[in-house]
Amino acid sequence: MKSILSLQSISFSYNGATKPILEDVNFELKEGEKIGLVGPNGCGKTTFLHICVGLLKPVSGKLLSYGRPVVSEKDLLELRKNVGFVFQNPDDQLFSPTVLEDVAFGPLNLGLNRDQAEKQAKEALELVGLKGFEDRITHKLSGGEKRLVSIATILAMKPKAMLLDEPSTGLDPETRQRIIELLNRLNIALVIVSHDWDFVAKIASHFFTIENQRLIKIEKAVLHQHMHYHPAGNIPHEHL
Amino acid sequence: MLDSVFQEGNSFIHKADPRIKLISGLIIAFSVALLKSIQASALGFFLAFLFILVFSLPLGNVAKTLLFANIFIAFLWLFLPFSLEGKTLFHVWRLKLTIEGIRFAFLITLKCNAILMIIITFIATIPMPTVGYALSSLGFSERLTLILLMSYRYIDVIFEEYKRLAQSLKVRCFKPGTNLHTYRTYAYLIAMVFARSYERGIRVYQAMLLRGFNGKFYSLRRFKLKNSDILLFIGILLSGACLIMLDRGMFI
Known about the structure:
The complex is a heterodimer of chains A (240) and B (252).
Chain A: E1 3-12, E2 22-30, E3 34-38, H1 45-52, E4 60-65, E5 68-69, H2 73-82, E6 83-86, H3 90-93, H4 99-109, H5 114-127, H6 143-155, E7 161-165, H7 173-185, E8 189-194, H8 197-201, E9 206-211, E10 214-218
Parallel strand pairs in A: 3-8, 3-9, 6-7, 7-8
Antiparallel strand pairs in A: 1-2, 1-4, 4-5, 9-10
Helix pairs in contact in A: 4-5, 4-6, 5-6
Chain B: H1 12-15, H2 18-34, H3 38-54, H4 59-83, E1 88-92, E2 95-98, H5 99-122, H6 128-137, H7 142-170, H8 180-210, H9 227-247
Antiparallel strand pairs in B: 1-2
């Protein structure tokens, strides 16, 4: 399997900050892989995602896309075409007045003509189960609908991978279940960042966390019959 | 917040091509603005009122909108009749009330109300997003169109943010008064709204970048020109010309 994205010994700190956010991070995302990144607030999960799509430039280390280093603006565009990003707050993502316009925004930017863009947008809406929402006004949708539309805006670009920042926050149980089913149905690679272990565990097959600025692989919950998240869950232990 | 009641409806004007409506509205509004005689302005006023009636726009809401604007015009009536030289009707203390002054104030009132009714008919009946797309398909600057659409989209979001902050003041028993604490709190509140909308702006822009945005804005919207739209345009063009010709005394 080809690796869509790989990070090689990446370190990052914000301008002027002495303490790094991430240190010597190595990561690889292969085609079709579903990865969960769990961890407490402020541990650098979002920063990690922003580096993956080139929104933040690492202080040191290399970002590769399909084995080629991402350097120029053109590489970035290519990377962003392959790797979609769903923001934590759908209001940041949905800026067009109508749903269809917003979902077609990405495909139009990729240079598709109106008919193709409209077709891909409609397919994406159908995929997330929002057929018939085309002419709805984006800011008047419910929170769950907004989340689904923001996922559709990325799927319409037909990416190879999709990164999701806290996709389960503020959802009612039904929409949450809907999103779990949707993400399981997709056959693209996924990176799901969350502190909601239950949510991630239902989708991902590999798990990571960030501890002391480093990305650490957590072994899958095979040791647990029931899954929950707590520190050192990868060490064999018993629950009373 | 920005959606007006006039958008709802199913009349001829609601179905007309928004580009034609924008241009027609502009032409007829400018024609009325150029008028100098009371007679032509009155005709313009009746024409505009006719639009409202013919396209069955809600009269109550039209009246409300006009009333609001006429509050400002009322101030003109306080000063204008006294400030123009001409035939004096009577004196109030040391001020002269002149016929010319009254005539001028009346002219402004007529034209102002006429233009407002024209804008209600031709522009307020277009949903705001469509105004943006229509402008962009007329070759209006991409950037300005984008600013218009984004303001429309985010003004609600920012207002919601403001409301949340205001509520958090309320639940902590904030009572505005005439003191430094109140001023400071309001300053913080406004600053926080600005800071948050700035940060939101950054995130929205990042989200756009990640979807391949490169400064150019493409739209799915396609407008189709119907025969009735062309007729509307010609009709408006002729009425505008007639008004101006009447005003300049070309019929007499």
